[in-house]
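Researcher: We plan to redesign the surface later, but first we want a full-length starting point. Tokens attached.
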């Protein structure tokens, strides 16, 4: 991590690929710990939030200039002096953006063994079966309070979180309206079961919600204009699940909200949440939901960037909305 971006993060400028630090894989001392080969790293929208001025408040600390970025990943244990982990085991955890890691198991946040099973690939453990999947699953369980026949509007419906929300909402018998930023993404939302789909770059959210609403639940991944339109086109006591605000992550705060007054007029229940707070409440996510993914009941797609040296490009791609599906870096073959 080289420089704080003031707009979109650019590879080569704000993040750089650097091979100056090498380790001797056969002889590096483990001191009772593990030598991990990192296979997959996740690229998530919130990474941009951590690339900020450290004096600005945020839900996680700002990244430190000069150190690797850090995020969820899957690794394989190459060597182990820890009796709990044998060589060959796959482990998910929070890893620095590098190819190998020597660490004590206790130093890796969220370290847990993972396996491939049916349609559940290793990389899915950082996506549909990992942090973003848990976000959709737990946020929906906690706040949606769905009743069959109600109407939900899901933004970034072709992304990892959004596509799962669409599937959960359909399973609960709702009418689902989904928005996304390209025609291919619109087709993907349709294949996930959404009833009404549109490209928000071509059709105004307001027009669609006027025709297909009012809505009872809003799953908000973008904020801004979509949130404003949802506020003006919802039923009394609508549930607004404030999951993310993609439209402001890269410095563009130009949109002026007009409809905030409907929050009290329609007695809207507005729930902001961070997955770290919800996941302890829903441990079955890692078993029951993982089984539904393995069986193919819950569908997902991935946008795989090959090579850690291309990680900076993947970081920019997701912020610009040019990813199709869960963005991951294949650091090594898996
Ligand atoms: P996605 O794969 O959905 O990628 C982000 C998408 O956001 C892009 O593909 C793009 O889709 C859309 N986007 C980008 N810029 C804009 C913009 N200016 N206006 C509107 N949409 C934009 O990522 P995830 O599924 O991983 O994450 C989706 C959301 O969930 C994000 O807001 C993220 O921050 C949030 N999140 C929240 C968590 C929590 O704990 N609260 C945890 C995990 C994720 P399109 O082409 O459709 O515009």
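Model: Full-length starting sequence:
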């Amino acid at each position: 991590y080289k420089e704080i971006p003031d707009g979109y993060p650019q590879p080569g400028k704000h993040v750089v690929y650097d091979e100056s630090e090498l380790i001797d894989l056969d002889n590096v001392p483990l001191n009772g710990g593990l030598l991990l080969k990192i296979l997959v790293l996740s690229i998530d929208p919130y990474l941009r939030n951590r690339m900020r001025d450290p004096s600005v408040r945020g839900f996680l600390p700002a990244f430190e200039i000069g150190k690797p970025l850090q995020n969820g990943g899957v690794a394989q244990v190459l060597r182990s002096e820890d009796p709990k982990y044998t060589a060959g085991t796959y482990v998910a955890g929070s890893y620095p953006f590098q190819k190998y890691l020597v660490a004590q198991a206790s130093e890796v946040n969220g370290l847990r063994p993972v396996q491939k099973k049916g349609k559940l690939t290793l990389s899915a453990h950082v996506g549909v079966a990992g942090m973003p999947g848990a976000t959709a699953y737990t946020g929906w369980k906690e706040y949606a309070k769905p009743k069959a026949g109600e109407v939900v509007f899901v933004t970034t419906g072709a992304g990892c979180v959004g596509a799962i929300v669409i599937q959960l909402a359909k399973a609960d018998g709702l009418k689902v309206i989904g928005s996304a930023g390209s025609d291919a993404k619109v087709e993907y939302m349709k294949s996930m079961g959404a009833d009404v789909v549109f490209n928000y770059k071509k059709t105004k959210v307001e027009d669609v919600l006027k025709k297909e609403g009012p809505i009872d639940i809003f799953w908000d991944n973008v904020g801004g204009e979509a949130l404003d339109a949802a506020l003006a086109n919802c039923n009394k006591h609508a549930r607004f699940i404030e999951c993310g605000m993609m439209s402001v992550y890269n410095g563009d705060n130009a949109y002026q909200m007009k409809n905030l007054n409907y929050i009290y007029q329609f007695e809207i229940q507005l729930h902001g949440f961070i997955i770290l707070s919800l996941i302890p409440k829903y441990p079955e996510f890692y078993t029951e939901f993982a089984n539904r993914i393995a069986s193919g009941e819950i569908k997902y797609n991935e946008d795989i960037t090959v090579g850690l040296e291309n990680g900076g490009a993947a970081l920019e791609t997701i912020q610009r909305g040019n990813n199709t599906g869960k963005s991951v870096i294949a650091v090594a073959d898996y």
